[in-house]
Amino acid sequence: MKKIVLIIVLISGLQLMAESIGSDCSYKGKNLFGRVRIVDFGEDFKVKLVRIAEDLRIQVVNIAPDRCGKWEFVSFGESFKIKFVDIDEDFKIRFVTIDPGLN
Questions:
Q1: pLDDT tens-digit readout, 62-85
Q2: How far apart are CA 101 and CA 80, in angstroms?
Q3: In angstroms, rounded to a whole number, what is the distance separating the alpha carbons of residues 19 and 32?
Q4: Are residues 36 and 68 in contact, defined by beta-carbon separation less than 8 angstroms?
Q5: pLDDT above 60: residue 8
Q6: What distance in Å separates the CA atoms of residue 74 and residue 54, rounded to the nearest whole number?
């Protein structure tokens, strides 16, 4: 029983230590705005698409992705690459039409 409790405590502690999106809208040293390419492997970030409790609100734009949460999807010349996942995400996103940025 003590081992189970210890394992649960350790797992909870690791989740709390996980890196989060900075107040400057960066994660792992990369800004979370700009030109984004969706890939199946070789991603910079693993993201989970959610309807509630997002870490970052994303507004898809065709020009000037120059603010936190503004993404322009491209086939090449990307600022960073993402992979959509269901588990083990780096952060969670939700698509919006207004007010992109940190939650």
A1: 999 999 999 999 999 999 999 999
A2: 17
A3: 14
A4: no
A5: no
A6: 23
The reply to whether the predicted model has a pTM over 0.70 is: yes
Give the pLDDT score at 39.
99
Amino acid at 9: V
Nearest to 99 by CA among 57, 53, 56: 57
What is the Cα–Cα distance from 54 to 100, expressed in whole angstroms?
Answer: 11
Residues contacting 31, CB < 8 A, separation 6+: 24, 25, 79
Asked if residue 27 lies in contact with residue 65, where contact means CB atoms within 8 angstroms, the answer is no
pLDDT digits (tens, 9 = 90+) for 21-31: 999 999 999 99
81 phi-psi bin (left φ>0, alpha ψ -120 to 50, beta other): beta
CA-derived radius of gyration, the chain: 16
